[in-house]
Amino acid sequence: MLIAGILITIVAIFMVLVPQFFMRLKSPRIPDKLLKNPKMKIVLRVWGNIFVIVGILLIIFSAS
């Protein structure tokens, strides 16, 4: 559970910092209209923040 928490946290931090990389992944395919929408970056950053919290919680629960 500790390793999963660390991996989730690392990926989520990158999701918050570089949302363009995750938006350009091929699966699932996101239409070009959504890629240019600035709200999409905000949504991806919100999801990233949620996963950072989940990853930190996993690390805390596995350490205790």
Can you walk me through this structure?
80% of the residues lie in helices and 0% in strands. By secondary structure, the protein is an all-alpha fold. The longest helix has 26 residues, at 38-63. The protein is elongated, with a radius of gyration of 13 Å. The chain starts with a helix and ends with a helix. The mean pLDDT is 85.
Topology:
Blueprint: H1 2-17, H2 19-23, H3 32-35, H4 38-63
Helix pairs in contact: 1-4
List keywords for this structure.
64 residues
Order of helices and strands: HHHH
Q: Nearest-angstrom radius of gyration? A: 13 Å
Give the count of helical stretches. 4
- Structural category is mainly alpha
Mean pLDDT: 85
Percentage of residues assigned to helices: over 70%
What best-fitting shape do the alpha-carbon axes yield? elongated
State the low-pLDDT regions, or none. Answer: none
Q: Outline the biggest β-sheet.
A: none
Count every beta strand, where a strand is a DSSP E run of 2 or more residues. 0
- Range of strand content: under 5%
Straight-line distance between termini: 11 Å
